[in-house]
Amino acid sequence: MININEPIQEKKHHEFLTENTDFEVRSLDAVCFNESELKHPWWYNLKYAIAGMLFGIILVKAEVISWFRIQEMFRLQSFHMFGVIGSAVAVGVISVLIIKKFKIKTIYNEPIEFVSKKFNKGNVYGGLIFGFGWAITGACPGPLFAQIGTGATVIVITLLSAIVGTWVYGYFRERLPH
Amino acid sequence: MLDFLKQPWPWYVAGPLIGLMVPVLLLIGNKSFGISSSLRHVCAACLPAKIPFFNYDWKKEIWNLFFVGGILLGGFIAVNLLSNGQPIQVNPKLQTELATYGITNYNSFVPSDLFTWSSLLSLKGVFMMVIGGFLVGFGTRYAGGCTSGHAIMGLSNLQWPSLVATISFMSGGFIVANLILPYILKL
């Protein structure tokens, strides 16, 4: 009995997992599996900590981690946030174009890979829900970490709550429209 | 130079620097810029609970946890070494509006009139921190990314689903900030 039932359940899960709706977690894409990363010792990851540190400093100095600036943005009372996001996207677009055009490789001489993502309804529903939370907390996930760093220790609660939210999404994922 | 760094940075300095995170992460290790997935990795590492969404090798994505750890450290450095200690300058219209809710202290990035340990015991505090945080975590994962993963990385790679997601983030924010948040702040 168990043997007959198992493959069906396996298949269901398998089908679900291959549908990677995550724009950020690339190791889940079979097409883009970066095995070489495993060969690096752990301290290779320190370069990401340094990149994160610089990013954190920029976030604070641009005041984009400020609840007040987010309120200004959503009330159209300041150009600041739109300028930050707009110019960041412009630089990002140009960088990606240059990388693609000249086939620039990583510092380990690997080709740089980009994955195209399929649209799913979660982009809209989830996007709206995140927008609701963004307006209330005045922070997206990056700024949450930076805010804690600035000494706002209570934001640990907001962060833990965001982790719980992520977990609850994972729990109900198969029942949500995608 | 240090005096210059200690002022708030204008958008045309900070924005392009944020945009440069995209090529930097790609060049140093083929990584897509994105932050909210770190929350998923924490779930996968701490409580996967046989949920398929959390059953993957999170150690392959550990760079992301180093990255967010760095952001926290960066926040500490910016405030303690690169700050001029001036309150945040915002639009006077916002100041007038917030004053009606008793929010008058602009000395920290996170308003100390709202986000404190003691306010966690009030209904307002629960809305602002617990429910707000939950919506951020649930929404970003449902959307498949956050401001960094969709609005910056996704748009940089000209992905139209990211444009849809970014418009949704903004729409949700406009609705709540203008129509619902005033009621929460009045609590």
Report what the structure shows.
The complex is a heterodimer of chains A (178) and B (187). Chain A is an all-alpha fold and 178 residues long. Chain A has 7 helices and no strands. Chain A has helices spanning 2-18, 46-61, 67-74, 80-101, 122-137, 141-149, 155-172. Chain A is globular and about 45 Å long. With 187 residues, chain B is mostly helical. Chain B has a domain at 1-86. Helix content of chain B is 64%, strand content 0%. At the A-B interface, α1, α2, α3, α4 and α5 of A face α2, α3, α4, α5 and α6 of B.
Brief overview, please?
The complex is a heterodimer of chains A (178) and B (187). Chain A has 178 residues and is an all-alpha fold. Chain A has helices at residues 2-18, 46-61, 67-74, 80-101, 122-137, 141-149, 155-172.
Distance between the termini of chain B: 45 Å
Radius of gyration of chain A: 20 Å
Give the overall shape of chain A, derived from the CA principal axes.
globular
**Content of β-strand of chain B:** under 5%
The major sheet of chain B is characterized as:
none
Oligomer: heterodimer
How many helical stretches of chain B? 8
Taking all residues together, what is the mean pLDDT of chain B?
95
What is the beta-strand fraction of chain A? Answer: under 5%
The class by helix and strand makeup of chain B works out as mainly alpha
Low-confidence stretches of chain A: 1-17, 30-35
Mean pLDDT across residues of chain A: 87
Radius of gyration of chain B (CA) equals 19 Å
How many angstroms does the end-to-end distance of chain A come to?
A: 32 Å
Descriptors:
heterodimer, A: 178 residues, mainly alpha, 60% helix, globular, disordered N terminus, B: 187 residues, 64% helix, 0% strand
Fold blueprint:
The complex is a heterodimer of chains A (178) and B (187).
Chain A: H1 2-18, H2 46-61, H3 67-74, H4 80-101, H5 122-137, H6 141-149, H7 155-172
Helix pairs in contact in A: 2-6, 6-7
Chain B: H1 2-6, H2 11-29, H3 37-46, H4 62-81, H5 92-99, H6 123-143, H7 147-156, H8 160-186
Helix pairs in contact in B: 3-4, 6-8, 7-8
